Amino acid sequence: MSTDAGTMHREMDLLRFTTAGSVDDGKSTLIGRMLYDTKSIFEDQLEAVERASRTHGEEETNLALLTDGLRAEREQKITIDVAYRYFATPKRKFIIADTPGHVQYTRNMVTGASTAELAIILIDARKGVQTQSKRHGFIASLLGIPHVVVAVNKMDLVDWREDTYEEIVAEYREFCEKLDVTDLTFIPMSALKGDNVVDESENMPWYHGSTLLHHLENVNVGTSRNLRDFRFPVQTVIRPDQSFRGFAGRVASGTITPGEEILVLPGGTRTQVRTIETFDGPLKEASAGDSIVITTEDEVDCSRGDTIVRVNNLPTSATKVDAILCWMSDTPLEVGREYLLMHGTSERKIVIDNLNYRINVDTLHREDVEQLGLNDIGRVQIEAAQPLHFDPYQNNRHTGGFVIIDPRTNVTVGAGMIRSEVREAPRPEAAELVGQADGGPAREKSPNVVWEPWNIPRAEREKRHGHPAKVVWFTGISGAGKSTIARELEKQLWEAGKQTVILDGDQVRHGLCGDLGFSPEDRSENIRRVGEVARLFYEAGFIVLCAFVSPYRKDRQRVRELFPDENFVEVFVDVDAETARQRDPKGLYARHATGRVTGLPGLDAPYEAARDAEVRITRAQSVEDAARSVLASLDAV
Amino acid sequence: MTHYHKTHLDQLESEAIYIMREVAAQFERPVLLFSGGKDSITMVHLARKAFHPARIPFPLMHVDTGHNFPETIEFRDRLVESIDADLLVSHVQDAIDAGRVVEETGPHASRNGLQTVALLDGLKEHRVDAALGGGRRDEEKARAKERFFSHRDRFGQWDPKNQRPELWNLFNGRKAPGEHFRVFPISNWTEMDVWQYVAREKIELPSLYFAHERNVVVRDGVTLAETDFLYPVEGEESERKVVRFRTIGDATCTGAIASDAASVEDIIAEVAAARETERGQRSDDKRSEAAMEDRKRQGYF
Fold first, then answer.
1. Whose CA is closest to B188, among B143, B150, B157?
2. Which residues on B lie below 8 Å from A304 (Cβ)?
3. What is the ipTM of this complex?
4. Cis peptide before A315 (omega within 30 of 0)
5. Which of B24, B49, B165 has the CB atom closest to A412's CB atom?
6. A410: which of A57, A308, A549, A608 is 20 to 30 A away, CA to CA?
């Protein structure tokens, strides 16, 4: 292999990326341009496209025709499914998952994004940031794509203006702050004219960043690979004869070497890796992405569907999980019905216990719905017939992602990402097991408390009560007036004939949370418990008024995510520390001044101001006034 | 972390092995469709790697049009013997003899279209529930949307509008009785990837792929090998040329290109500089703009 071409492959790596854009953003033209300018298009393909362009009555050669594959698409002039394209430069091979942008094809975007390390989101410079541009960003974030490139296209049609570009950048950047996007890059371009796609633009001297291709060639690949947690889902057992027995699979994450202590889940049998076998000889180490065969020191019970892990790094094992689910079938998701869940190399029966809400992919609002339809994304709790051995999707795509299959049709109807196990009270014996010393079987975290759906649905209760259930969350520093306003509000609601309840800090700290202190961890746990209590009252059809300092944004967000948007109101009682000190209803500030109390939020401990609160109350408002403004917002929602 | 650096070939190979193992685990009676071309030879190599040290746990299946290059059959038999694989052959001639298909006549006659029937007959006869193929998405536009696990109904048909979504590395192979899957482990490979892999793995290929001298007939701009079943008609003449084949299919419709590439390295250099796709020399694709899509719907491989 002495020729250039022969040695080339040694240097090349691989980047999988996805492209999202609407019918008119010029996505197909952009891909056509990349293929054309990297000379990945052959003469006969170009001839076919030129021929087709003439048939379709177009004057210039339509590069978009290179990618719009199926006949139905050519007729409708839209892309209707995920299509895969390939091109390579001497540095890197690229796999493009080209997904359509219009609303009914969320499922395709999710599919294309599931294996991508980078997403290109197209924005038409003339139209600016559109609803669907946000949707694409949200899906990229949801699927954990590490790199996002925003291609601000059609710059030729806005006279290459920098201010137009900068406006789009500012608006989209602000939107992305709400998402989990770690690496965000903007590139102004014209796919039609070729500016900043492969070649630098002469029309936009004000832009000093990379061209798209340069960025694609140099972005760091493999960042989404988890090299920490060894997970090996067993695909099949290789047993040519009595002398050899090995477990075949692809390392989902982490690394492994011969001699390491391993454990087989479920079951928890321990042994050591004897060898890592391949056709090309044994390996000294295998890492995420390698297809290998593992042989073990001991004869262990292990077959397809089992997962091999390191003894000291276990995944979570639980039968009940909390997940984000994207529904991909015309037949809506039915809560309570039996489905099959495919996770790693295993399948198990499951039931969707509960649907918390649907996420509106355009507004990011959480909506109260009865079911999920095609292209809906929602948050659910799933109960499986046998424990799932998983990592949160955020940490591990391969052990946190799953698909749902309808056993009646065998069709893949949904795809999900596990957030966590569903927390439940441990049974005494389960608690003991967790405490057991190292050396026993795998510790089983799942207490297997059976979840029963609500006996009488909330909708029925709301009908009888004559009003919808709501949760109002008052946050603010001590002495801001949260409880005072909540009490006034409750009086007004009570007089109007509503079912209400107040939860406040002092109350729960004397009972439910009597075991907790004021450390950041205890404060978080306090709020978590209150959120769960609020949810019980909410499901019983009450208007729940919660008055808690709740100084951490993260904790408040976690409570917020338990409820549909329209039924949750956050009230930020925004009073400065000086005013609160003067009021000092509980004498906390006085005691703080003499050093008998420390860690007061807003003074010597953090209070993270609410940014997205639905209502903000200021010092200038009277209590009655404040209560009335909250009441008004309740009517509005 | 150069230690964990994986080249594109490492990743493509690992993906293909993963898919083959999924097929062996999820299906009861899979076969590997073997045409004698470089893609299916590469598939056999990958299958050996996937199940090493065991032998390949499913048979190879060859759809024989009867219009083969003799080199293909020789190569096939030698390969099967050397790796101790099982071989099933489904003959187009059988379908013709049974009157299930009517052979095209005239100088342009091709048995390529008849392969579909012989293929479906073979799958049915052996109750195959998954057929592994060497199809690649870069070959043709209609294939760009093909799944790794492609579901076929009881009539062997593909419905491009009703494909199962494939996320992460989860492949749903569940099916009703009578249905089957076509599975394409090297979907993500390009022609260049295959050649680079052939070079890296030192995979042996039939001599047809390398430059050699033979008698050819130029018909409709396609250079075809002169054989017992393809000969010059009026207005055509037999020529002696140095050629090689970029794909190997039915000898009546597989075009040769003028080339003096005599080694895999020469071919890689040639492919890198090539200005025409490999299917560009397949006269069967030229019949209409959507020719491939139509054949796939009917169950073509």
1. B143
2. 25
3. 0.87
4. no
5. B165
6. A308
